Structures
1.
Amino acid sequence: MNARNTLGINEKGHLSIGGADCVDLAAEFGTPLYVFDEAYIRTMMSVYRDTIAREYGDGLVLYASKAFSCEAIYAIAREEGIGADVVSGGELYTAMQAGFPAEKICMHGNNKLPRELRYALDCGIGLIVVDSDSEAEDLERECAARGRRQDVLLRINPGVEAHTHAYVQTATPDSKFGFSVASGAAKSMTEHILRCPHLRLRGFHCHIGSQIFEKSSFAVAAEKCLAFMAQLRDTLHFEADTLNLGGGFGIWYTDKDEKFTPEKYADYLRTLIRAVKEGCARFGLGLPRLMIEPGRSIVGEAGITLYTVGAIKEIAGIRKYLAVDGGMFDNPRFCLYRSEYTAVLANRAAEPSRELVSVAGKCCESGDLIGVDMALPKAERGDLLAVLSTGAYNYSMASNYNRNFIPPAVLVKDGKAEYIVRPQTPEDLVRNDVLPARLRR
Ligand SMILES: Cc1ncc(COP(=O)(O)O)c(C=O)c1O
């Protein structure tokens, strides 16, 4: 189980989330079903918000909405007083539909489309992170036409790449994101933006990776960004006032990962804050406005997915498959990254694990698995399987592959659940189909 009070086993031996019995949730809403615990989400948002406010001062937490985007999550972020980052016109539209303040939104993307940039300007977005020469040109032209100046950051690649428990510093960064500091591209692009009369360069953005447990990697990235800022001050007389260090804090998926309490996440942030303060003192820089963009660590462990076990197939001497009513269309992360998860039989959650099974989806793909060698009690058809820590990058990467329905999502508060994403219907599946007259019968 995760390290918060989100999940528990109730007196009936059922898995509970946010005080709601998973068996009751499945009976009321059906499966597959995404379930989110609101208290968990709010705790994480407020931990980041309060730590920055108390220990740094001028800063803003931006919820990285790519992790899970729907109107309710933006409404919660708005109520918690944090900002949001978006990476497409679609995420921005969703945030605007939820009444999110545009001035607290920061837009990313390595290839923002001209129409996405125009929409962002129409909304009055707070910050746009410039990630290519052509985008700077498009943005300058659009802003000139509107007679306004837009605040922007420049995405830089400081040459630190971190994954899970390790990080590397690399002098020859190969990434579709950002401008390399080492190659001089970041400095040239800074000069270019400073020459654009309708762009106001506030500072820099970097994001070094995701699911990172190595605290020092953030500190190294911060240090490198500050060194770059000092170099620009000395050579271009440009003093940046904003530093956005991206997201990436790791979460618990299996017992190979650490279990972090909210206080431990505050510690991560303290390490980063200390690095920024020390770096600024060393380079003689004023403290910039500090931004971070956590996504996974806010919603990942807040969410689980409930499935019903269907076909069970044992291949003697090879493996046993439990097939569920979901699969890669609601959770493509195993197919994409071989990501590992922990599963629980939610209707028999107190029973000890007895066997290792592979959990298969229902898609017509051999690789459609949720996990291999997952430890479970002996499951039977009709059992309720909960896959834990599915709140991030599951719904947001879901598809209608094989014309399966993307599952609905419910939000649990004080033991009560309500829809935040309604179930799809067969009509939704054909909504955008067009049958040319010559093919009709
Ligand atoms: C630019 C940027 N910011 C923030 C995030 C959020 O990262 P995480 O969900 O790991 O916190 C990502 C994710 O890859 C990202 O690309």
2.
Amino acid sequence: MENTISQTLKGGEWLIKESTTQQTYIPEEFNEEQRMVNDMCIQFLNAEVLPQIDKIDKMEAGLMPSLMEKAGEQGLLGVAIPEDLGGLGKDFITSTLVNEGLGGGFSFSVAVAAHTGIGTLPILYFGTEAQKKKYIPKLASGEWKGSYGLTEPNSGSDALSAKTTAKLSEDGKYYILNGQKCWITNGGFADVYTVFAKIDGDKFSAFIVERGMEGFTQGPEEHKMGIKGSSTVQLYFQDCKVPVENLLGEAGKGHIIAFNILNIGRLKLCAAALGGAKMSMDICIQYAKTREQFKTAIANFGAIKYKLAQMAIRIWVSESALYRTAKWIEDKETELRANGSPFNEALLGAAEEYAIECAMLKVDGSEVLDYVVDEGVQIHGGNGYSDEYMISRAYRDSRINRIYEGTNEINRLLIVDMMLKRAMKGKLDLMGPAMAVSKELMSIPDFGNEDETAFAVEKKAIANMKKAILMTAGAAVQKLMMSLQDEQEILMNIADMAILTFNAESALLRVMKLVAEKGETEYLLQADIMRCYLNDALDAVNKFGKDAINAFAEGDEQRMMLLGLKRFTKAAPFNSKNARRRIADKMIAENKYCF
Ligand SMILES: Cc1cc2nc3c(=O)[nH]c(=O)nc-3n(C[C@H](O)[C@H](O)[C@H](O)COP(=O)(O)OP(=O)(O)OC[C@H]3O[C@@H](n4cnc5c(N)ncnc54)[C@H](O)[C@@H]3O)c2cc1C
């Protein structure tokens, strides 16, 4: 298949425009090298990490750093880093595939993701030439480990309210840091830390702090619910002397570093979560085939098939949205570089363009993984509750993903906030399409579908889901204006409608592209997956829309919108039970997640 997409949509534009398969990149388009890199990651986990997973979780001294060094030797820590700084200089899809490939590595996956993401990218994107030369090659090789200190005991989601201070020394040679950071991943063994502090108590800024700097100490390891092998400590700064040349980026502009790095981190978290979810699925399929009750394998029970199929549906759909977005970011980066943007500004600018989608992926990826491991424990019955089974570890380790890289509540709020801000800046025309939908509501409904092409019903369903969002969000903005920001329940409803719709559309476009290339018969199960998701998404959009509308509308307006919502979320009859059985049967036959 051709590895290019045309006329990339801008961030958020999928909501107001019809997307085409040409604008959609799908995982089946990974090239040979990308597949190899992904396989290499999985082999690394199987050979080096999983056999030692108990020792890792017991925090055997030196084990995690040495595994990271091994990963570094194989190039896995420097995939996204330019060659002149010691990396492999690969594209964004490839580096996303590394996060996915290593995603099944439990605590190891967390350590590597923190190192290659928040531990390395601030210096790579915001460092001076001298800072990059000093730190990046050693971070790329794994000789040095990276860490990131933003959170404090009293500032988590409200990160900018940090209390750690920085003051220029009298001789002008150092910033003197005082304060405390908490929950710092890799903090127990890292060599290099990006730390945020306020210069003179108000200019929020970032600093590169090295282990061993005077006045810098780390607390003991936290005792956590999961990811027990991942180092998490507090950092203490007591008159810590940081050389002025270690100020990262501009003084007072630390928020730009903190927030821009998060966009990429959110997409990568989705990739890692899906890697973990696929691995958990394989474990569950194999368990369900071998565990017998009532003289038959539990995989033969419809209740278990439902679970296996639903796990696969959620993974496949989320993956469709992930790589659709990753390719948009990659193409935008290429465009910006072609227009003269330097390396760092290009990728950050590209990720910023798709910040809405990155937030949606973070929420969905983390919730897909939670769903998969939760049902995975259920498939394992009592054994799922035993530490001896991998699924139990997967369940404990999954939970953190909804908390860090911005909690899922914060990300849901951001999704709508960013959409409305883009609309206000004139970057995303939400008002025009929203007005068109309210006009349509007043007119006689058109129940027909003139489009007789393949997937016409599904295309219309997606278009209608978008109308449901535009109608609900448009009316909420008009009615509540500035007070909408205080109505978080409504914002959450709209965010969920957006995630469901973006996901369903990504899955539909993937199926349409596959069918156009190879014909329908090859992809019947993928079409089943897409239809199962779409069917449920229509109901869910209806529910979230109803909750929102009932919260702000009254009288005739309320009745009219509820009727419109019902029309926009009408599903064609579909036997999802049979579809789920077909999906589960295929995986049972293949002995693994195989889509
Ligand atoms: C294992 C682990 C590893 C971590 N690694 C790092 C790291 O390497 N570096 C680092 O800097 N940080 C790290 N963190 C910190 C993490 O990013 C924060 O825990 C997270 O941002 C949430 O902050 P908080 O814990 O203070 O929760 P709070 O901000 O107190 O949130 C508590 C609850 O309130 C909700 N909430 C907060 N504000 C709002 C709002 N405005 N509207 C609606 N709901 C709201 C949240 O969604 C959440 O449900 C890590 C945390 C953990 C547990």
3.
Amino acid sequence: MPAHAVNKINMAELNHNYRGRMIISELEDAVGIQNVRLLDVDKLPHSVDYYWIPRMWVDRGKKPVYPDCVVYPETTEQVSKVMRIASHYRIPVTPWGGGSGSQGGALPVEGGIVVDLKRMNKVLELNTKANTITAQAGIIQQHLEWEINDKGYSTMHLPASIGCATLGGYLAHRGTGVLSTKYGKIEDMIVSMEVVLPNGDIINTLPVPRNAAGPDLNQFFVGAEGTLGIITTATVKVFEHPECRMFNAFLFKNMHDSLEAGRLIMNARLQPTVIRMYDEPETIHQIERVFGTKLEKGSFLVFGFDGEKEIVDYQMKKAVEICEATAIQNLGSKFGEQWWKNKYKFYFPPYCLDLPQAYGTMDTVATYDKIENIYWKMKTTCEQFPGTRFIAHFSHWYDWGCMMYDRFIVDPAFVPEDPDEAIRLYQQIWTECIRVCLDNGGVINEHHGVGLKLGYMMQEQYGPAFQVLSALKKALDPYNIMNPGKMGF
Ligand SMILES: Cc1cc2nc3c(=O)[nH]c(=O)nc-3n(C[C@H](O)[C@H](O)[C@H](O)COP(=O)(O)OP(=O)(O)OC[C@H]3O[C@@H](n4cnc5c(N)ncnc54)[C@H](O)[C@@H]3O)c2cc1C
């Protein structure tokens, strides 16, 4: 338990005791009687997100940790009132967006109040002069896109979970979309935001994201995973639809060659919208399956450009030249376009990983001089576990390095039926693989976040620097009521 944790209210009281009923009536006063839910039918869906452990747990017939109640505020003022009540009684509060997070970040592991933000789904302003849009944080990202697509705009934040995750969830997790290589991650897209602090105060960050008025408050709350406050409104960038968007795909002899080609495209500062490269096992596992085409053995790489046609033609020509120097086959634009059309498909049934397999996406990021070594070391470590495979694609590329979407998959025959044993195996794989990543200069995560899953590695990741984060947390949330048990707090 964190050092600053203090006695919190025994939440079982909420349902069974007159004092609890008094607190419930305060919450009902804050958000409306119909928006405070105490039934199991409301609690169960707020106790399992996309993290493998709770899914396996429920699959094995075990009860997950329920919140004591779920509240659905509609305005920032209502969120503030809920936080004031929680702060007064020291009740744990867990923000809930779409529940699509893979790290257990939204799980109410200490019970208490889940604040489900999905009623806070209004678009407040599209500003076509400043190229920004302001919306409540509970809006599903796809709805935000639909609101502006017909008007000629896009946020260019297009993650595979676009239909089931919220703007606030992406901000809380430092999410990223398929076009990140040109348009940035969500932390590059944020302009300003409104946050409700653990004590209920409502604050706003500065109106523009580039300034020298001290450290950047946006970046303080982005990635905090609801441990420092609840993001209620956000202003993010919008972009006009590009005149054209083009893709091309190549096959390389091996992952080393395709990784190098991707690096050279970035080095040439050609500004691709996306580069996605698949190692040899994932080229077979995903590309061949989704495309329904047999390829020669090798590593698949696809890239795209968008903007004015003349510029895109030039960028494309240069990138193709780079790849043709070492690729074994130019698969052409048809394969590239096919990949773009299917871009979300990889993450949904029947192509995604699912129970009864055990699986995890390790989402590793490192500089170009280190990433390939980390890939091989993590693969070796992972595949020492019986019945376990390691596959990866490389999704988000920067000037200095790239992100590896590396996954382990344990064959169902090797996943213990006993849920406690299954957790033991699962934790062992994570711990050993992540240690290898850290020991070789990687960072534990690029966009899925830390959550419950990786909280125990934060001290190892940061070393003495973790005290800075802990001190900030303690200053803002002295009773550790905001999403306790996450991010190592
Ligand atoms: C099929 C699938 C594909 C995916 N693809 C991608 C992808 O391409 N890119 C990507 O980045 N992620 C992806 N993810 C992961 C997931 O969608 C992201 O982590 C997303 O950011 C979670 O958003 P959510 O609204 O579902 O948040 P939740 O899962 O509800 O919550 C996540 C965390 O954010 C906190 N939180 C939620 N809302 C707020 C708020 N308003 N203020 C403060 N804290 C808050 C929660 O407490 C929790 O800690 C994918 C997931 C799935 C299931």
